[in-house]
Amino acid sequence: MSDFVFQSFGKGLKKAIGMEKREKSKGTNRIRALKWFVAVFAVIFAIEAVVYLIIIPSLQKPMIIWSGERNYNVVDLSKAISPMLNKSWAKFDEIETAEYLLNVSGIEDAQVVKRFPDKVYINVVEREPVAMTFISEGGKSVPIQIDKNGVLFKIRSAQSRSDSDASASGKIDVSLPLITGLPVDVSSGRMQIPPKYRGLMEQIAAIRNLSQNYFAAISEIHIVTKEYGNYELVLYPVRGHARILIGRQITEEALQYMMVALDVVNSIDPNVAEIDLRYGSVACRTRRSTGDSF
Fold it and tell me: How far apart are CA 9 and CA 1, in angstroms?
């Protein structure tokens, strides 16, 4: 009986020891598998980190995301920064890119921001025209726009995409007042008006911001150069044949005074050729006389 009990206990012990060994072996295998999994994951993570942190910024060309463009299209703006397009993200220079864009006459400002690992955000601020004039180009008279800072620029059509339209300028805003007799300064590397006329552009910009469109009644603003660098303005109204002298200040009050004077003078004598408002009174010259005052 005791032998049977001993044999049964020995078999049970052997079985328990075998199960314990198997459990230990399974635990060891799990730990080894977990270690391999962690090692493989670490290798994959390291490879992705190298690709993301080094290879993409160093070798891949950046993805450029534009904003702010209205009259210019992305194709034209991309051409303006073409020297930068073949560079990798790491070598893409924000300041140099902004300088290329500022060489475009119709771009007033540009902000260039890089975002890791491969994106470049470019926001452009286009010039707002306040007036227009004509310049001679290739033997032709070409319309061109002027902003409040006195910079002359052409506007490209945002719809233009083909190479055949590469030199085409956009449509001129017909609500812009036409200015003639305006000298152009190119000494700065871009076309702009001399500094003494920039105050005139600011006055025109202020009037354009008013609710009433005063310039709809004026077909032309002509600049007459005077001695010692001064100038005066001559307005040509859309209605009537008389030209109007107003000095060098063009304000809302001056334009209101002009329209009242024009209505009164035309009702009295339709043959008036010139109305002088420079000295606080209305002086007129007709085609039949050298001067009459009303």
Answer: 12
Residue 175 · residue 213 · CB < 8 Å: yes
Alpha carbons 3 and 286: distance in angstroms, whole number: 149
Residue 143 makes CB contacts below 8 A (sequence gap 6+) with 132, 133, 134, 169, 172
* Closest by Cα among 51, 46, 43, 68 to 118: 51
> pLDDT by residue (tens digit) across 194-204?
999 999 999 99
Beta strands in 103-189 (DSSP E): 107-115, 119-126, 129-137, 140-147, 152-153, 179-180
- Beta strands 243-247 and 152-153 are unpaired
Across the chain, mean pLDDT equals 81
3-class state of residue 222 by DSSP: strand
What φ, ψ does residue 128 adopt, rounded to 5°? -100, 120
Please name the amino acid found at residue 172: I
* DSSP H or E stretch at residue 115: strand 107-115
For 138-181, how does the pLDDT look when each residue is reduced to its tens digit (9 = 90+)? Answer: 888 889 999 999 999 986 655 444 443 433 445 667 789 999 99
CB-facing half-sphere around the CA of 119: CA atoms within 13 A: 5
Q: Which residues contact 268 (CB under 8 A, 6 or more apart)?
A: 294
> 242-268: per-residue pLDDT in tens?
899 998 889 999 999 998 888 888 788
Assess whether the previous peptide bond of 117 is cis (omega < 30° from 0).
yes
C-alpha 32/C-alpha 284 separation (Å) is 106
- CA–CA gap between residue 88 and residue 92 (Å, rounded): 6
Using left for φ > 0, alpha for ψ between -120 and 50, and beta otherwise, residue 228 falls in left
Task: List the one residue out of 211, 266, 210 whose CA is nearest residue 238.
Answer: 266
